[in-house]
Amino acid sequence: MRGPDIRHFMPGLLLVLSGCAALPAAAPTAGQITRPAAPAGIAVIDIVATPPQGAAVDVSAPSADWPIADALPWSGEIGVGDTLNVTVFEVGYSLFAAGSQGADSPDKAPSASGRALPRMEVGESGSIAMPYIGAVHVVGRSAPDVAREIERRLRGLSQSAQAIVSVERGPAQSVVISGDVKAPGRQPLTLAGERVLDVVAQAGGPSSRAADTEVRLTRRDQTADIRLDRLRVGSAANVRLAPGDHIELIRDVRSLTVLGAAHTVSELSFDSDKLSLAEAIARAGGPVDERADATGVFVFRFEPAQVEGKVRDVPVIYRLNLLDPRSYFASQRFYMHQKDVLLIANARSAQFGKLVQLLNTMVSPAITVDLLTR
Question: Between the chain's N and C termini, which has fewer beta carbons within 10 Å?
């Protein structure tokens, strides 16, 4: 018994062959990307041992032009809203100590005693009220200076009086931290000269990953932003804070999109302050052996460029050829940007394999071989 005549299938098979380029595909081939790019005005730049200009810029590096400078060192001046703790020590006849020895007890030996006075908040007048001596102006003065004045004014009223003054900082000597932080609120400043990272640590750190957190510092009419994982001890952005500064932590997840013939087609978030192209390919699982084109790894990005005298974002395609050994070095210096699209192209042979599978569903494998070898 004779098998089916192949001529009966020729019209349909020829139609399938003519539509080979329209077969279902998860990604285009390298040629389908590069051929339409030039007519569309999109530059295709090969990534080789020396990365193209602009591509190797480390976007994680803090700007040298950080607009907010270190605040002046604080010498401990008392401000409105601070709270003062005053302790007076006396030897002999005492004004403040409970059960003090008076002049009517000459048979008793003098003794030393100390008395902590009630906490006193500094009001708008800038003064505190001390028993026996009245108002003492304290705003703009240091705690030791105020203690010396209290001692001076107690002379003749108390025997050998000595005063110790300590200050609890109020709102006038504090900063506010808010946003995506574990313990938002007001943080007092001390003589240690707290910096941005100090206050973030005192507030418990960010609620999200450092790589997903933006730090915004506002001082009067100045505002500056930096990612938390880029903020380092000793960097220009880790400035000494001034009273009234506001630190806001903002959750901002950076990511890129992986498409095409990769083992993992997904959205990849940045785990650190920078991500190289080599790391991005590895995190995506690398190309799929049976259908990926190793010469067609593409990065789609908008780059700033001068267009008619104005800086505009223009589309640029970067291409990596994994069959070129130099590309492995270049991919380590090519840093990914937020919202980049990483595409691994399909190999042309993948389309042919799909065609063979489609023909096998219509006719026997023997007829498929006969047709393709004609």
Answer: N
